[in-house]
Write a structure and sequence with these properties.
alpha+beta; endopeptidase fold (from Nostoc punctiforme); 2 domains; hydrolase; lipid metabolism; transmembrane helix; membrane
Length: about 170
């Protein structure tokens, strides 16, 4: 298991957003203090398996769990990333922590594009759910859909021109 080297300039503080770098995506958590975070995990997995599961990206339900940051990070890396602070005003830390603690153990809806782990923690920190990951994914899906439509139309035009009698 990889060790997490403390960075005195980037030590998590209560209410901070924690970005955890998984092999195929970023998982997000909110730092509560004393080594604990709150995050979303799949309903049908135990806590140990949930920490690194790609399955979590495709679940429709999630459970809000309080876990040790080091256990959730496992062999991956993380950083404090309050990247939305320039555009959104964080709520007072006491309010953030109180809002988070009320949700521990609850089952919530989960949707990769509209209600994911990043939306969850930004909703706690700012009162508004935001996710650049989801925005990028929606943009990529839109681009693929537009390209597929264009190729489909071009194929239809090409087929019609080959079937002309003249």
């Amino acid at each position: 298991m990889a060790t997490i080297e403390p960075d005195p300039y980037n030590e998590p503080q209560p209410g901070d957003l924690i970005e955890i770098f998984r092999p195929a995506y970023q998982h997000w958590a909110l730092y509560l203090g004393e080594g604990y975070i709150i995050n979303l995990t799949p309903v049908d997995e135990n806590q140990a398996a949930a920490m690194s599961s790609v399955k979590s990206m495709f679940s429709r339900k999630a459970v809000v769990r309080m876990q040790l940051l080091k256990d959730v990070v496992g062999g991956d890396t993380f950083r404090v990333n309050n990247k939305y602070d320039d555009n959104h005003t964080p709520l007072p830390v006491g309010n953030i922590i109180q809002r988070a603690e009320v949700l521990i153990g609850q089952e919530v809806s989960y949707d990769l594009l509209g209600n994911n782990c990043e939306h969850f923690v930004t909703l706690l920190r700012y009162g508004e759910g935001v996710s650049e990951q989801a925005t990028r994914a929606i943009g990529a899906i839109s681009l693929v859909t537009a390209a597929a439509s264009a190729f489909s139309v071009l194929g239809l035009i090409n087929t019609r021109s080959r079937n002309r009698p003249f």
